[in-house]
Amino acid sequence: MTTAEITQFFHIADSTLSDWESNPKRQKLLTLLRTISLDEAEKYLQPKNTPPKFSPKTRFAKLRKEWFSIDLLWSRQDHSLIEINSLISIYLSTPNQEDTQTLIRLFGIERVRMILMKLKNSMPIEDYNEASEQIEFSIDPETYFEVHPLPALEELLRHPKKRYITYLSKQYSADELVKMAQEKKVPFNTLFQIKKMTGLSA
User: Are 22 and 75 within one domain?
Assistant: First the structure.
């Protein structure tokens, strides 16, 4: 993997990787990450190959806000006790790929799917479908695009989603994607989203 791929995939800051290069204890890990491909890393870390952090029988957990890319629980204190099913419901109701993958990693595919099914009649159909597709992509990104064809490139760049940018990143460099978005004159906040998804912005 390239440095950009490592920082994007594992959410590791460039400065941290620089520290690793000068730290003999971390150099081996960095060397390992650089010798495997992004595809290999994705396969090793697919949710279906990794047991969840919390048992399906666990009802409550201490909230750790650093788990998530968006703080949807701003009214709650960090490290406060929260019912796991409520936590999953809140994040599925405003779905984004990164946090959906976090839910699956923490609580398991079956539990996340079960909560989504319970929400089906109470959430907007667009959000339900988006959360469902995010789960599907998390489980098997390789076959996802066999079932769900990509929208047109302009649509992807105007309405970027993490799974689409991940797919496009295998064909284009981060700089090329940003340049194409600029040529399409996408709004500034959308351009920032693309930069963040490709690892060009923290």
Answer: no
